[in-house]
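Final report, results section. Input specification for complex C-07:
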Amino acid sequence: MRWFYICLLAAAAAAWNSADDAWVAPRKNWWAFKKVVRPEVPAVRDPWLRTPVDAFVLEQLSAKAQRPAPPLDKARLIRRVTLDLTGMPPSPAEVEAFLADRAPGAYERVVDRLLQSPHYGERWAVKWLDVVRYADTNGYEGDAERIHAWRYRDYVVGAFNQGKPFDRFVREQIAGDELYPGDTDALIATGFNRAGPLHVVGGNTDKEEIRQDVLNEMTGAIGSVYLGLTIGCARCHNHKFDPIPQSDFYRLQAVFAATDSKDHPLSGADSKKQYDEAVKAHKERLKPVQDEIAAIEKPYRERLRAAKLAKLEPRLVEAVNTAKGKRSEEQQRLAKEAEAQAKVSWDDVVNALAPDDRTRRAALRQRMHTINYEQPDPLPAAFAVANQEKAPETHILKVGNHKMKLDRVDPGLPRVLDPPSVPMAPAGRRQALASWLVSPDNPLTPRVMVNRIWQLRLGTGIVATPNDFGVLGARPANPKLLDWLAAELVSSGWDIRHIDRLIVTSAVYQQQVVQGEAAYWRTQRRRLEAEFLRDSVLAVSGALNRTLGGPSIKTPLEPEIYDLIFTEGEPDNLWPVNRDPAQHNRRSLYLLNKRTVRLPFLANFDQPDNMTSCAIRSTSTHALQALSLMNSDFMQQQAQHFAARLDSACRSNDCRLRLAYSLALSRAPSAQETAMATGFFSKGGNWPDFCLALLNRNEFVYVP
Amino acid sequence: MSLSRRDILSVCGNGFGALALNWMAARDASAARANPLAPKAQHFPAKAKSVIFLFMVGGPSHIDTFDPKPLLANYDGQKLPESFGKVISQFTDGSTPILRSPWRFQQHGQCGAAVSELFPNVARCVDDICFVRNFHTESVVHAPAMYQVMSGRILMGHPSIGSWVTYGLGTPSENLPAYVVMPQPEGTPEGGTPMWGSGFLPAVYQGTTLRPGAKPILHLQPGAGVSVERQRARLDLLQRMNDLDTPEWDQEMAARISSYELAFRMQSHAPEAVDLSKETESTRRLYGLGEPLTKEFGTRCLLARRFVERGVRFVQIYHGGGPLTFQWDAHDNLKTNHERMCGMSDRPVAALLTDLKQRGLLDSTLVIWGSEFGRLPMSQSGNGRDHNPYGFTMWFAGGGVKGGQTLGATDDFGLRAVDGWHMRDFHATILQALGVDQHKLWYLHNGRHEKLTDFGGRVIPGVIA
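Structure output:
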């Protein structure tokens, strides 16, 4: 009898599978699912050509009787490529050296220098962290800080700086713990699986629902980040457009069934002991201050509680007044209610305090916060994942609802790509996924990645929808170029720098920006992304702190923004600013990214909120940007810095003007601009104001 | 005409002017085309032109305010009959006894709508109000439920309703932000700033927090001691340089030049918009500005009217936030909590409706009163109530809404909505009032045509006249 049911179940599962196979089969012909076949580089001859990339573009333009735009002049070119590869403008010396270098290969030498710059990885990390939706906090009401997440951010910076092959990068992020035991970097890399938002809340929460949210995040990310497929759409139903049946979503989700979040300690038992002692010592320092606060509060708390108790129903009062051991069952319940009704909250106390007690208490709390600055740093840990010993079963969920389980599914990969099977063993599922993503048979991973690189450097991808290579996405505007680059990525040993170099040394990249519809081959008017606008301001003013990596930084927050941090508790010390002011001038990448409270300067300039994978940032233009860039304390300070920098280098206004232009705009002022400046100063204008205007200028804010 | 054009003309002066004028005109036209907030036509004619959404943070109890349940008194202290099913809330599991409402209800207005004694002033406005008593939502937890009512999803990261509306309709206001947000000064709602965020829509559609006082908008004023003349001189220098940088065809750079002029106009207009000194004594009295309890919320309600008068498209007000004593979240001591929260908000809300009506603005302004959920008929901690997402009341007024109505119902205990309306129906109804077709208001994001109402909501019949 038992066997009968097992056979029946197997038959049902098989029926499901074959129905899905039949549904998928006629849709396998979609361009993105076909194998990458390396095309021949077109045999076009033209003095314009610089890299094979250009041949593909020119072939297509010639067929449409179009010509590329004229090339950019050298000064603008080095500015463009430096902004693109490092996120900051070139120094005057770098510009000068390039202008003076008339030997062949001068530009390529600049590119090679930039590709080796530590700022290259920082620039790339901003892009990658958009795609994986990285932030330093969980989101939702708790929005707790992920105190170890920054190691994943640093891992990403390092991966691009070290030239880590992209296939290895993928393997480490998805399954570094399984594939490279003992390799700390690979362990940290698995923080990728935890990058999305997480709902943590008290009370009767539905654990299964929260687990399902986590699994949805992990599963959807594989689609948007690596495959360029909106797999998340198949959570509730078969994908409306792409050949992804609902069962495939849950088969892919089953890959993560055993995957748990885990902060792996990165230090030994000795450090743990030291740390525990340091914590103990710290608590001992805090204790007298806390005791003093408690002593101030005590009479108020007692009075307030007594007043509240006096208003309670007699049976509640009686229950509270009965000794704990002697309460009846009913009284135990009533006593609990009484405690809740008579609880004294922090604001009850603060409102009741006499003025001098309030002052004393505030000073003590300040003292407590000051001591807390010196609390021991947390022991290092990897913000990572680990496998449970047993993988819970995975079911297809009707309309994605965890309470409506349908058939059970085994782990598997999207069937449209005829993938290998995934083992059932819990430790091994993610590595099967990772290995398949970067296997020679997978056409999507390399296509999606080279397209991201193209979009990053040119403004528009060859496929204009970098996270969607499906039916609703854009078609490749130049399929041969896309496939050639994809093949080149794989044959170069998945070398991102190699593709970057091919693109930025191409003639396509070196065109001027001219009027015309956006197209993959046309260099676009691109505004500096929020982080790089801020970084560029710091670099020009001279205040930039170029330190790489480390825990995320809290810079001073405008009081108006501080007020928007949610807490039910006492709202002091919610944003302990880093005490070393030099840290405030770090690159924007290192500023703490809190999901529910975003830094206005960056948010106003379209920094994505990182709740979902962001493939292309929007560029909106509005008045709040002007207010931030003209009036914020940050900009006022940087304008002062900039002016002081000019002062320390120059004695004449002429010198100041030339230096200001060369720092901010990588060129000398024109005669008209000199006259404009002279006019400004003759009417009483000062240098900080002039510097501020320069940093607000379109030419500064846009990539040339 | 923008100020920068005048500057250019004065700079260019001699005979160059005409040429410059043509060029500037072309540039301004180009900037206007690129202005994402330029007013856009409704999809179909509708009365509401602007929205004031009064959001009561933490979940007011519908059964103690607008949805009377006499049966609660009979069952006071008893368990919910088993036939009503299992109830899970955030902190309770349905096993606690029923708690009767501490307040009496009375019928009001010509329509005879029932309102509890907690809202004596709002009760006088019921003939302008359409109550909908059968809303339900998906989460028992504040933040996800807040995201759902504000953005249609329990997840973070979707554009808020104000963002969708300004994305769809732009704004007639040239001197103020299109989408204004006024949180409780004591603290933010649990959901935080994503509640008025633009999600994956461009940042231009995010809500802008505005507050009373000398600095109503972040970074509005140049640093201390910077005179208007000095600020103007900086800006003139900048705009002259920007004109050098900007080719005639470049809409984006042109829009950037205009954005500085708008910012400069905001510097004078925003302080004027929040300056209540010219309001008459009777208006100030109406909103309760003289009373300590109502002064703060009254001020924000009055500001909302002033913003709508000045063309702001969407005004979002949060009543409550931060410490529990400043939220409607009455897990214990329901009576103290609601008497205080209603005491703060009753008069200002009624004043807003009255004032808008007197000024002829109510017809074109949709006023919404609501929250993330209601509260359970069972008790928590003896004299409080836990969250109830299964059934609760929100109401509409103005903007073409048919007042004097009570639509829908919850069951006899006020526990569950009968044939309830989902948040997507709530959103569909608001868009309908604004003349926006919910299916035409979409944005392509990661391969999906994202909409406020996702697969579509039902417009609640009868709400809009």
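Chain A touches chain B through 98 residues (CB under 8 Å). Residues 14 and 20 of chain A are 10 Å apart (CA to CA). This concludes the modelling results for the funded period.
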